[in-house]
Amino acid sequence: MAFTLKQLSALEAAIGSGELSIEYDGKKVMYRNMADLVQAYEMVRNQLTATGALAAPSMSNRGPATLTVFSRD
User: Fold this and answer.
1) Mean pLDDT of all residues in the chain?
2) Which among 1, 34, 2, 49 is positioned nearest to 11, based on CA atoms?
3) What is the pLDDT, as a whole number, of residue 59?
4) pLDDT of 47 higher than 70
5) What's the CA gap between 5 and 11, in Å, rounded?
6) Nearest CA to 21 among 6, 35, 32, 5?
């Protein structure tokens, strides 16, 4: 099954709101608990990343970097 960005957005919105049901393209899906919802989100995100429909997340968790240069003048 090919996943869509609409499905990923619906899953993100449900996680953010704490709801266990999502709706997309006239379909409604009810999850048993938040763990199942998060697992579905990760599966859809990973599949979209693998197919190139979604950019891969960066591997750094440090945020933006700056460089400081010192000189002995």
Assistant:
1) 88
2) 34
3) 63
4) yes
5) 10
6) 32
- Pick from 46, 50, 57, 56: nearest CA to 7: 46
DSSP H helical segments within 18-58, as ranges?
34-51
What pLDDT sits at residue 62?
A: 67
Structure tokens at 5: 């960005």
Of the pLDDT bands very low, low, confident and very high (cuts 50, 70, 90), residue 69 is confident
Whether the Cβ atoms of residue 44 and residue 3 lie closer than 8 Å to each other = yes
Q: Smallest Cα–Cα separation from 37: which of 13, 60, 65?
A: 13
The span from the CA of 72 to the CA of 70, in Å, is: 7
pTM: 0.73
Alpha helix stretches (DSSP H) within the chain: 5-17, 34-51
Q: CB of 37 within 8 A of CB of 31? A: yes
